[in-house]
Amino acid sequence: MATQYEVEHNIKPTTSTTRRRRQVDMSTFTAHLHTLDPETPSTASTTQQRPPHEPHNNPHAVPNPADTAALFRLLQDQMGTLATTAPTESNRAFLQSLVEALELDVAHPPRQLEGVTQEFLDGLDRVPRRALKDDDACPICAERFLDDPYPLVVELPCHGSHRFDLECVGPWLRGKGTCPLCRKELGKRREVVQRGGGGGGEGEEEEEDDVNGLYA
Biased composition, Basic and acidic residues: where in the chain (predicted)? Predict the structure, then answer.
């Protein structure tokens, strides 16, 4: 099954591990997120259309706390695995801080996922190869971007220097919705707000997008 990296670069799926030596496979996280969030495309859906007999997720379903905790545990385990092979002490400390930040979500999972939408993730600025320096590296996997023949690097709107491999930062953004470096909120999901109704009637609910939150 094709990853987002392979889809955006129009290359065939491969089992080779030479492209990203330290990058952890996030396919399990993505598959689990797909069961909790109806807007998340499954890995298979990037390359083929959903079969007619396959049911869609209920768009009004509220994630089960146990399932939400399991999602954050998957992300926590991935970051912990990277920390065990961190090439520098600073990278290990950074990854450990992410592991610790996820502990509260595992112990007390939120009622709803607070991460960014897939649309927000798809709209992040891609950094062209010519704009990368030789020693620029992903803060999460600590690999130099230019060591990849097809770097897929995104720049977060909070700061021009906060750049990551998309496959490294994507799961964190979908789950937490904050920059891993400065922890600033980057985008908020559509919220249902209560509007006061006129004439003594009951208030009506309206969906409202936090447009400003897209680049808060």
Answer: 1-11
**Does residue 50 come out as left (phi exceeding 0), alpha (psi in the -120 to 50 range) or beta?**
beta
Task: Please state, in angstroms and as integers, the Cα–Cα distance from residue 174 to each residue in 23, 27, 30, 84, following that order.
Answer: 17, 13, 9, 24
CB atoms within 10 A of CB 19: 16
Distance, in Å, from the CA atom of 96 to the CA atom of 109, rounded to the nearest integer, reads: 19
The model carries a pTM of 0.71
> How many whole angstroms separate alpha carbon 24 and alpha carbon 168?
8
Joined together, the tokens standing for residue 36 give 């909790």
Q: What pLDDT, in 10s, does the model give residues 144-183?
A: 999 999 999 999 999 999 999 999 999 999 999 999 999 9
Question: HSE of 187 in the Cβ direction (CA atoms, 13 Å)?
Answer: 22
* Residue 146: DSSP 8-state: G
* Closest CA relative to residue 167, chosen from 145, 147, 191: 145
Architecture of domain 114-183: 2-Layer Sandwich (3.30)
Q: What is the pLDDT of residue 27?
A: 82
